[in-house]
Amino acid sequence: MVKRITENEKKVLKKLIDQGRVTDTNIADDLKISQQAVFQIRNRLEEMGIIKGYMPIIDFEKVGISLMNFVGIKVLPDMWKKFTEAQLNEKLYEVPFLFVAFRVPSSDISYLLITGFKDIKEEEEFAKKLETILTDKIEVVWAYRTAVDNMIAYDSLNLVYHALRKKDINIKDAVESITKE
């Protein structure tokens, strides 16, 4: 369900996206509203569940993650019989090395998993365990690996920022801008 938010709430949210650790006082000064108003807006955004927390942006390589793996898995019929979708989602959340998982209701895969590893050896060991232990429960349909430094963009907040815009983006112009020199 899409929550309706006011223009001031959008402005505060954009400031938090742009500046992360910005204080309520700085937001208030920039937006020319009171610090108490910013505090109340931030609290409302948290209560509505729009802001679920505050987290740092991590440099994966500096913490020892050099490899990302994108895996399409298909859950086999026996697993669907034993568990509800919610239970399967919970089980996937416990997968070691999991960065993010998406439920993909399609004919070829059930889930897209994005995992991170320190090196190829660790990734291959995990893949072997996944295939041998869960051989009768899931099918690994495809897997693609890439070095973390090949990640072009990791900015989920960029998507939110564009969702808060005042007018719709002209898709044709946006796509064409990518090819302009």
Fraction of residues in helix: 40-55%
Widest sheet, order of strands: 2-3-1-4
Question: What is the N-to-C order of secondary-structure elements (H for helix, E for strand)?
Answer: HHHEHHEEHEHH
* Strand coverage percent: 15-25%
Summing up helix and strand content along with how strands pair, one would put the structural category as alpha+beta
Mean pLDDT level: 85
Low-confidence stretches: none
How would you portray this structure in words?
By secondary structure, the protein is of the alpha+beta class. The chain has two domains: 1-57, Winged helix-like DNA-binding domain superfamily/Winged helix DNA-binding domain (Arc Repressor Mutant, subunit A, Orthogonal Bundle), CATH 1.10.10; 60-150, 2-Layer Sandwich (Alpha-Beta Plaits), CATH 3.30.70. It has helices at 7-19, 24-31, 35-47, 77-82, 85-93, 120-133, 156-163, 171-179; strands at residues 67-75, 98-103, 111-117, 138-147. A four-stranded antiparallel beta sheet has the order 2-3-1-4. A hairpin with a 7-residue loop joins strand 2 (98-103) and strand 3. Helix 1 (7-19) packs across helix 3 (35-47) and helix 2 crosses helix 3 (35-47). The longest helix has 14 residues, at 120-133. The protein is elongated and about 60 Å long. The mean pLDDT is 85.
